[in-house]
Design brief:
By secondary structure, the protein is mainly alpha-helical. The relative contact order is 0.11. The chain has helices spanning 6-12, 14-25, 30-58, 61-68, 70-88, 91-112, 117-122, 126-136, 150-171, 179-191, 193-211, 214-219, 221-228, 234-258, 261-287, 296-310, 315-322, 329-349, 351-358, 361-381, 391-399, 402-420, 426-431. It is 74% helix and 0% strand. The chain is globular and about 75 Å long. Helix 2 packs antiparallel against helix 3 (30-58), helix 8 packs antiparallel against helix 9 (150-171) and helix 11 (193-211) packs parallel to helix 18 (329-349). It has 23 helices and no strands.
């Protein structure tokens, strides 16, 4: 995605996807089926990362989380479609239909989605970036305080940031454009706090996510309910799990826009821990014949899925791209995404061994509850808040100069007051949307359409 762009990478992912579904649809033995699954898996991974990075770069800070949460929403909707098709159609026909699900989005991307202006500016394609921003801002009104359009203001901010980084490279004798030097620069970028700190935070966050049981219970839904001891049909329950996940993912888009990341994640962790603890207790009592309420574990498992969708399932994925600086955002997100999938593989493969070692389904559920509690304390102590933050502010946090950055911004306002003789009412200005992209650090702040009932006041 760094070489050919975010959108071209998504289109390239179509090739292994189509080849994989054709192999699955025409498979006459297990090995061809396995090759098809490997190809579709590669296509899925190649296409997902640039999509998340793209949303991170073009979305307003207040909408970034909600827009990125559409990924699990659409994935959940795809699960429901797959369940429905699998119930009524032959699996070979379903495989042929999936080719259509691959081609149609790529056609829509080709004609209706512009390339990321952040990436275009980083490659020196200023005119293409101007066209992309004009398309993204076409629904926004012309600001009253300037003759520049919002697209031009944003483009100027991106250009200033690029010029600053180029000047920094020249100053530190890193202007060589050879591949070897580019690799060295990337490696040095990951050795900086803005590179390695996000990776450390995301590693522990994904480790907690995987071993709190979210994906283990989703992949082993049928087996899990059979081992719990409930008399309710496990296959029917698994379909309800897919529907519950889809409905909660719709709610999650609103939650991520309304509330901050850390409170959501902490609430989600506590809710998951409580549900798994109660479900494990009833599973233990069912095993020992102390109760006949076999529906209770099913109900609390559904509540567990609801709680996970509020934070611990969705939020780590939304944070994989927004934590990294522009120059390593693509590769940083890809490394984090790969790391998350490796941890997911390890967690899913360890389910049987974990169940045998702990003594059964009830103990596994208590283990999940314990890990979820760890997630609460991790979010409380170590996780940075990214909701509503500009990407430059998140970068400054990991660099350790976020407070200096805020003080500098306030000092600039004071200097303006002193030099112009005009004093701005700060209390009022904090309640209003900032009217322009005055600094490079504010490049990510997309400007909302103004409300007619608000007026500027000057003392």
């Amino acid at each position: 995605m760094e070489c050919v762009g975010r959108l071209h990478t998504i289109k390239l992912a179509m090739i292994p996807c189509i080849a994989g579904w054709i192999a699955i649809a025409m498979a006459d033995n297990f090995y061809v089926l396995l090759i098809g699954r490997i190809l579709t898996g590669l296509g899925c991974a190649i296409g997902t990362s640039p999509a998340i990075v793209y949303i991170t770069e073009v979305a307003r800070p207040d909408l970034r989380g909600s827009l990125m949460s559409t990924a699990p929403t659409i994935a959940s909707f795809g699960m429901i479609i797959a369940y429905a098709e699998g119930a009524f159609l032959h699996w070979r026909l379903v495989s042929w239909l999936n080719i259509g699900y691959t081609i149609i989005p790529c056609i829509l991307v080709q004609f209706f989605v512009p390339e990321s202006p952040v990436w275009l500016v980083s490659k020196g394609r200023i005119e293409d970036a101007r066209k992309s921003l004009s398309y993204l801002y076409k629904a926004y009104p012309q600001p009253e305080h300037t003759t520049q359009t919002l697209a031009e203001m944003h483009l100027c901010a991106l250009q200033r940031e690029r010029e600053q980084k180029l000047a920094k490279d020249i100053k530190t004798s890193k202007s060589d454009s050879s591949e070897k030097n580019k690799f060295r620069q990337t490696l040095e970028a990951f050795m900086q706090p803005t590179g390695y700190k996000p990776l450390i935070v995301l590693f522990w966050l994904f480790l907690i996510q995987q071993y709190s049981g979210i994906y283990i219970t989703l992949f082993f839904a049928v087996t899990f309910f059979q081992e719990v001891g409930s008399s309710i049909d496990a296959f029917t329950v698994s379909i309800f799990v897919g529907v519950t996940r889809f409905l909660m993912s719709l709610t999650n888009a609103w939650l991520l826009k309304r509330f901050k990341r850390r409170p959501l994640l902490m609430t989600s962790s506590i809710g998951m821990a409580a549900c798994m603890f109660i479900s494990g207790a009833f599973t233990y009592w069912l095993k020992n014949g102390q109760t006949t309420l076999d529906w209770v574990p099913v109900v609390f498992f559904m509540l567990y899925v609801c709680a996970s969708m509020m934070g611990l399932l969705s939020i780590p994925w939304t944070m994989t791209a927004e934590m990294f600086p522009t120059e390593i955002r693509g590769i940083g997100h890809s490394i984090a995404y790969s790391m998350a999938n490796i941890l997911m593989f390890a967690a899913i493969q360890s389910y049987r061994s974990l169940s045998d070692a702990l003594g059964g389904a009830y103990a596994v559920q208590w283990f999940f509850a314990g890990v979820a509690i760890l997630g609460f304390f991790f979010a409380l102590i170590f996780l940075p808040e990214t909701h509503g933050k500009k990407l430059s502010e998140i970068e400054a946090y990991f660099r350790g100069d976020y407070k200096k950055m805020k003080n500098k911004s306030e000092k600039s306002t004071d200097d303006f007051n002193n030099s112009s003789g005009i004093k701005i009412n700060k209390n009022l200005m904090t309640k209003m949307s900032k009217p322009n992209l005055a600094t490079v650090d504010e490049q990510e702040q997309m400007i909302k359409p103004k409300k007619n009932n608000k007026k500027k006041e000057f003392a």
